[in-house]
């Protein structure tokens, strides 16, 4: 048995219920408190610098510089740079939009579009009865689609997916009208993005934990051939 297979087996064996498996995987996906803070710091640096200096290039440099510092710290500690890299890519795309147009508020447009896309994709997955959270269960059980044979699990996964949709939809509903408003809205957009970033994710995760804590659906694992 390979080390990878053994590791997967230990992870699978650690969870006896669907609820425990989904809860663990969602926590891992968010990267914990540190991962969520690393996602917020470059935005704080960009917004704070622009509000103080009103210089887009300086603000972009501050945002990217903050992400690079966080990446160096991760590499020095030999820990996973996944969430910092995600943040670095995000601030780089935001910088491209802002520098191309010369408007600081355009740095927030990619995030608005991304959240709208996430919300639409997850709603579609619910409508066609392939809720995205179901694939978390599949990653634990070793069968990516077996969960669909149980209507109860499909219903649970649909509810959990709705809880992931809500933060994305809320961000679009609040931030897009601000973006469309007259004048420089970068300071307000930055504040809204920070306030609606990890705090909303934590709230969604808390709601999921509450929902998952109410049930104990056993995991039916595939038997090795």
UniProtKB/TrEMBL annotation:
Pfam family, one: DUF3159
InterPro entries attached to this UniProt entry: UCP010219
Keywords: Membrane, Transmembrane, Transmembrane helix
Protein name: Intracellular septation protein A
Upper lineage: Bacteria, Bacillati, Actinomycetota, Actinomycetes, Streptosporangiales
Superkingdom, taxonomy of origin: Bacteria
Annotated transmembrane regions: 56-76, 83-99, 119-140, 160-179, 191-213
């Amino acid at each position: 048995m390979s080390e990878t297979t053994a590791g997967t087996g230990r992870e699978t064996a650690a969870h006896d219920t669907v609820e425990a498996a989904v809860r663990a995987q969602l926590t891992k996906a968010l990267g914990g408190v540190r991962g969520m803070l690393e996602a917020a710091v470059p935005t704080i640096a960009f917004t704070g610098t622009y509000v103080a200096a009103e210089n887009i290039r300086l603000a972009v440099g501050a945002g990217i510089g903050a992400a690079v510092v966080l990446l160096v710290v991760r590499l020095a500690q030999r820990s996973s740079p996944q969430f910092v890299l995600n943040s670095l890519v995000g601030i780089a795309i935001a910088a491209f939009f802002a520098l191309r147009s010369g408007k600081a508020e355009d740095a927030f447009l990619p995030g608005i579009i991304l959240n709208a896309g996430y919300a639409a994709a997850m709603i579609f997955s619910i409508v066609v009865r392939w809720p995205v959270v179901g694939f978390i269960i599949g990653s634990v059980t070793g069968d990516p689609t077996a969960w669909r044979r149980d209507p109860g699990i499909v219903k649970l996964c649909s509810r959990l997916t709705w809880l992931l949709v809500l933060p994305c939809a809320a961000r679009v509903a609040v931030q897009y009208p601000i973006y469309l408003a007259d004048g420089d809205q970068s300071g307000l957009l930055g504040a809204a993005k920070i306030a609606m970033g990890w705090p909303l994710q934590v709230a969604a995760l808390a709601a999921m934990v509450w929902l998952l804590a109410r049930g104990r659906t056993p995991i039916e694992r595939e038997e090795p051939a």
